[in-house]
C-alpha cells in the first residue's frame, strides 16, 4: 500500500492500480509523455499516433530555451510566440 491517491484516502499496492483508480473514480487522465519532446498525451492511442507522425526522428531544439520539437514549423511557431522580438 505505497501508492496513495491524491484525491481520497485510498492507497494501492501498485502504481498501475492507482492509475486505474484515478481514471475510474476521479476521471483524471494519465499523462503519457513523448520521450522525444515535452508533449504529454491522455492515452496510449494518442501518443502512438503522435509517434507515428515522426518520420525522420529529427529533433529541433530551441536555441533560446532548449525546448524540443519534432517539426521545424513547430519550432518556428514557438519562436514566433515566445521569443519574437
Ligand atoms: Zn482516489
Ligand atoms: Zn513527441
Ligand atoms: Zn524557446
From TrEMBL:
Residues 3-31, 60-85 form the C2H2-type domain. SUPFAM superfamilies: beta-beta-alpha zinc fingers. Gene3D superfamilies: Classic Zinc Finger. It comes from the Eukaryota. PROSITE patterns: ZINC_FINGER_C2H2_1, ZINC_FINGER_C2H2_2. This is C2H2-type domain-containing protein.
Amino acid at each position: 500500500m505505497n501508492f496513495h491517491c491524491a484525491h481520497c484516502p485510498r492507497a494501492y499496492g501498485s502504481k498501475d492500480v492507482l492509475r486505474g483508480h484515478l481514471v475510474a473514480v476521479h476521471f483524471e487522465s494519465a499523462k503519457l509523455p513523448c520521450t522525444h519532446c515535452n508533449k504529454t498525451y491522455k492515452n496510449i492511442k494518442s501518443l502512438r499516433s503522435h509517434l507515428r507522425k515522426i518520420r525522420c526522428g529529427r529533433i529541433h531544439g530551441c536555441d533560446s530555451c532548449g525546448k524540443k520539437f519534432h517539426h521545424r514549423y513547430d519550432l518556428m511557431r514557438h519562436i514566433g510566440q515566445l521569443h519574437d522580438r
